[in-house]
Amino acid sequence: MNILITGAAGFIGQLLATELLNDPAYKLVLVDIVDPPIQSGVKYPQNAKIIKTDLVADNLETLVHESAPDAVYAFHGIMSSGSEANFELGMKANVDATRALLEALRKKAPPGVRFIYSSSQAVYGQPLPKTVTDEVIPTPESSYGAAKLICEALVNEYTRRGFIMGFTLRFPTISVRPGKPTAAASSFLSGMIREPLNGQEAIIPLEDRSFESWLCSPRTLVRNLIFTLSLPGDCVPPHIRQINVPGICVTIQDMMDALEKVGGKDKLGLLKEKEDPVIKRIVYSWPTRFDNSQAIGLGFQRDESFEQAVRDFKESVES
Hints:
- It is built from 11 helices and 12 strands.
- By secondary structure, the chain is α/β, with parallel strands linked by helices.
- Keywords: Carbohydrate metabolism, NADP.
- Residues 3-204 form the NAD-dependent epimerase/dehydratase domain.
């Protein structure tokens, strides 16, 4: 299977590519505005082709024609805090790039090419019920969420018209992410685990340990991303392609407790709570609980506990 991954230099792109490059059935084209890396130790690095390109400025029709994808994962974009700080860049990277990619697929890919779009719980905004169901209308309170909702509508329309077979996956916050902090407002939800386990100080930009987040581990996310390759095209209506990916509800205190269990009590001393009003405004607009009946019924998986996500990260650091 030929797979095109945009935003392949990012965390999720690298994570998925690493998993797919351990299976000889997949040949990848890894695309980003910087050279996407291929992780050392994968079994079939020769099955990946790296392309550095700007999705808005460059000729995507040639890229699509030459890569001949059976499926596309769209991970490109600027994250929440970055989109809020720079409106024009956020719209270009999140909306214009997605429209350009969809147009190239419409013109140069076989009709119905599978298109898996990474959306976010940020499409929702207050007021919200305690538990978000599929019937809740998205009303984003951030530029990032608004851009994601615009792109969701594009995926619906291009699927309804038969240009693509689109699936929009609304991700929970992914934790624990390896690497450096990102421009996401939710970045601290990985940093408060990652940094202490690496012996570094971390700032929690909230002073409310009861604050709840809807989280998913990297391992479970990758399983769900690969599972989407086999989803029947008619499992959701042709004009309603969005699926809320399963997560678990975790408080700041829950996360601190998991850090202590896995890393030891001394790691809590590396956490500093210092409220940031900008971050607080963004993250408090997001939902914290979802009814994932649809996704679970389709075969998507959820984590058993956040403690296991912390253990997964600790093992990856030590390996």
